[in-house]
User: What shape does this take?
Amino acid sequence: MLITIAPEAPPSTRTAILAAALERGFQAQAMANGRGGQVIGVAGSLPVEQMELGGIVDVQAIHKPFMMASIEARDRSVVTVGDVAIGGGLPVFIAGPCSIESKDDQIEIARAVKAAGANILRGGAFKPRSSPYSFQGLGKEGLEALAAAREVTGLPVVTEVMEPEQVDLVAGYTDMLQIGSRNMANFPLLKRVGRSTVPVLLKRGFAATQEEFLMSAEYIMAGGNTNVVLCERGIRAFDAAFRFSLDLNVVPSIKEVSHLPIIVDPSHGTGRRSLVARMAMAGLAAGADGLMIEVDADPDHALSDGYQTITPVEMGRIHRRGMALVEALHGFDDADDLVPDVAEAVRITSIEDAAVELERIA
Assistant: This one.
């Protein structure tokens, strides 16, 4: 059940609800609701009406299985990574190489993507690869290179963590922990990052449904870490022309049922460098809160995923066009104001008069 508490509620109300849940063996977690108050998710039913507690605004006994991630739980979340807000209205651009190859290279590309408009730097230190013979990343040395690039550029950084035992190590170097597609259903890892205070970027499994995706987010939030950002990175389909198929349906669909921010990864979502820019625009048009793009100074010689990696110059084009697109789309927020004027133009019988009227509306 979901219990919403008013901002002016006494602290004893929250304490009593959590204690009642614990007494009955129910898992319970509280988080801010975006309106100054709190919402408590309880994995069971409490006799709230009989507890005579002050400041309770709403009790929802029936809700979605991903109760803490649901739109009914709170207003839309804004997750802060370093000094960058994800979900705050402006799109966020996360960019960098698939794999960190050296400290000097990471600093060089960090400077380049920052100049191209990136807000957050990415780079893999631990790399899950399909082949055991492929480059697996530099490990701790890669984390140190990522931290050095942050020190030079000021960009917050995100990198993948693959195992529960790595969380403390990786969290010591990064501003955001990434859960990769292959680990979306790694429940021990989800529980472990749920106990961390570092924001989490959760990538959708390439065979996962929308509900399975959100339930993985719920695992993290149930552990106490409510700073979760979702990432659509493509699903496996039947067409061999693409590495994956970017499922942009899920972006507006998730926004209908969840308060969590969601970004799009057109690099993995297409697997082809030539498609990244177009699908990046499509992701923003679908309502994504940002993009995650693989960028390298020399993609053709990158140690991993070079075929889907773009250059900093192309990244700059995507940033400029993306910001222009979002600004144009925001203009449609007031489109309803045009409806009476359009209706008036439709009633004009003369083609010439209609053309003049439509030009005035435009």
Summary: The chain has a mean pLDDT of 91. Residues 2-60 form one domain. Residues 125 and 142 are 5 Å apart (CA to CA). The chain has twelve helices and 14 strands.
